[in-house]
Amino acid sequence: MENFDLALVDWSRAQFALTAMYHWIFVPLTLGTSFIIAIMMSIYVKTGEEIWKRITKFWLTLFGINFAIGVATGIILEFQFGTNWSNYSWFVGDIFGAPLAIEGILAFFLESTFIAILFFGWGRVSKKFHLVSAWLVAIGSNLSALWILVANAWMQAPVGMTFNPDTARNEMVNFWDIILSPTAVNKFLHTITSAYVLSAIFVVGVSAWFLLKNRRVIFAKKSMLVGATFGLLGALFMLMTGDESARQVFKDQPMKFASMEGLYDGEANAPLVVIGFMQKAPTKANPKMVDFAFKIEVPNLLSYMAALNPNAFVPGINDLVNGNEEHGIVSYYEKIKQGKIAITALRSYKDAKKLGNEAVAAAELVKFRDNYKYFGFGYYNDPHNLIPNVPLVFYAFHTMVGLGMLFLLIFILVLFYLFKKNIVKARWLNYIALWAIPLAYIAQQAGWMVAEFGRQPWVVQDLMTTLSAVSNINHQSVITTFVIFAITFTLLLIAEIKIMLTQIVTESKIKED
Amino acid sequence: MFENLTYLTLQQYWWVIIAVLGAILVFMLFVQGGQTLIYTLGKTELQRKIIINALGRKWDLTFTTLVTFGGAAFASFPLFYATSFGGAYWVWMIILFAFIFQAVSYEYRTKPNNFFGSKTYEIFLYINGLIGTVLIGTAVGSFFTGSEFYINDFNSSFWESPYRGLELAFNFARFGTYINLSLGFAIFFLSRVLASMYFMNSIDEEEILKRAKAQVLKNAIPFLIFFLFFLFSILMIDGFAYNPATGFVSLEEHKYLHNLIEMPIVGIVFVLGVIMVLMGIVRGYFFYEKCASKAIWISGLGTILTVFALLLISGLNNTCFYPSIYDLQSSLTIQNSSSSEYTLTAMSYVSLIIPFVIAYIWYAWKSLNNKKITAQEMEDDTHAY
Lengths: 513, 385
Fold this sequence. Notes:
The complex is a heterodimer of chains A (513) and B (385). By secondary structure, chain A is mainly alpha-helical. In chain A, 72% of the residues lie in helices and 6% in strands. In chain A, helix 3 runs antiparallel to helix 4 (127-156) and helix 6 (182-212) crosses helix 13. The model of chain A has no long low-confidence stretch (mean pLDDT 92). Chain B has one domain (2-354). In chain B, helix 1 runs antiparallel to helix 5 (59-76) and helix 13 (264-286) runs antiparallel to helix 15. Chain B is globular and about 65 Å long. The model of chain B has no long low-confidence stretch (mean pLDDT 93). The chains are: A mainly alpha (513), B mainly alpha (385).
């Protein structure tokens, strides 16, 4: 570890996090509104009612404003794999690159080609072709999400590859294992459905503001109906896939799972913390320190969530670090030892190859293969450096789950009031719907924090850490680009919000026809 | 079907795909060229609006081509991706930076309450047009002139110039810099020629077209000067060759000239491409009344063929496509920098979709451009930029 420039790693991570978090402000809205717009346009084409055309056009305008900035941040994200994580790019490029290329060929062109038709097609192309374009944009943008999430899932739970010591990288051996890995399928479904929820909250919330101002009531109620229905379906799928994701994390990333729950000492019949306030974590020197100042728990639920068995043992952070023989958990100390053997064996293998000493090379290769599973651990000496920021992951996870439940409730209430009562008079509900918009963005960011902070320090689970993935640059360069990006993205975000708000206010003031 | 190909054939196949994407990208940079002509061609607010809207329908396509080019390079030649992007950090960062602003400028320029004011967004577009073309050209120039990097036996790359890629454009003590820059400026002026032709094809507004016609010639002349300088230079200099059996890299006199001769089909494609670019310019300027609106297709196709051939001679026929002048043996070839045979095979199946993608892009383009953009339309269109 002493050979690594920690400032470089930290700033490179900061820059990547900055770009990813900004990118993810815009993308979920694109993913969901593209479908909402396609649905609205379908209603317009089917009924021919002018009001649906106006509704479609209004949401399309907001979509366009949001889309542009999503594209802008996306290109930075893609090229940052090369500029800032070049060692990673080589180590896993054989696997990670393919989904990225497929994304470009298959999805981006679909999206960008038909988006031009969607925006400019009014009167230039037939209504039918225009509608098909709207659906193709929605499919295209969601396909883009598929491939990048497959790549991300592979980093969390690497499958379908083997390490080639001659090229010093992982190489793909089974394409389908990578695409269809349960982590990939779940990650994709959970991410896009959560994006649908955010988009639906956005549509419902903006419409609620129209109602609060008592403007464009029919326009707003119709938009709300589409938004809330789409949102309700999205939210149900989101909960299902989230539940399944938890089991995947438990299986592949037990440290992340323990951090999500702030679980230091593992237990059978583990309870789920519903609400909790963490305080200082217990340490080796002071194991009696209390980790929670206050918590409300549901007995056995965590065990059930993890393994569909209320009595299952859920390992805590201490079990993972120190090992637990009773439950067959290998300690981080042992993994570090094996990792170091693998690293040394690879070096010796290379040297023996260079000298033409095939017998030694073969022996070293066997040693390497036997210990490769924990290769990445070998870069560390102290296992405590392999624990993520527990409070951050804990709070992010609980924020995400809590808000997810709230959104489900909002959709149910909105639909109930739309059908059974007068929603215009339910001002309290409209206020809640409006204030849910920022909450939806917080939930999205929290979700990615769980996924990404929770797996630290791994870039590729158990195999590659951020330390060894980073490009060999001086950290001053990275600080400079970080500051430039931070300022740029912030200014663009301000511009985006101002433009959007103006469009919303302008639309609300149009006299109802 | 791809399983039966040799590893080398797959590597060549993917280099051809990279060359196709690169060639289409250079053609599509007409959007960038057009962004530097907004004030030259548009003297009134309405004229500028027409120009920006003509470009605004295509910017995303150029952007996507760039992203796909990056993605395909990552997937097929990851060591190049790692070495070049992680090494020439500042060049790529500046290029990327120029592209952040482009994406939002079209959408935000005319929207009320847009924070920066529409003039600022127009400046963003100009900067993107200038930097995007010149620096991408300069970076591609280094495929012929080389860069300063070293690769260790774990395939980790180390850039040896403290200027992190900026030396490609600013190290004036080295002849290679002039070659890089000449390609950069050739692409810049070519993109302006193509943009003028694109306007002739898609806009119906007399005054703009008259000025566009003048711009064809005004930019064609500097384009030719820079391009010919670049061309003669690379045909004259020593190129980076490698021995396919041992991988040993050495300098070879007139390597790129040899490549054109030893791969006669590529040579023919190259000559044909150059002739078509020139033919388009002649038609666009001298036969303006008769066939100016078709000039973009001839020069455009010519551009694609020319760049395609140039990229092929930089990487095929045992040539190092990303040479290192710091350590010759670290130079990247399609053989030592590619993905595994399995990955290339799997992706080759995906590549079969490319003709289909091109077909629908073509169809969409046609259906949107079958009516030319007019001043009247700008006033009616609710989504106009």
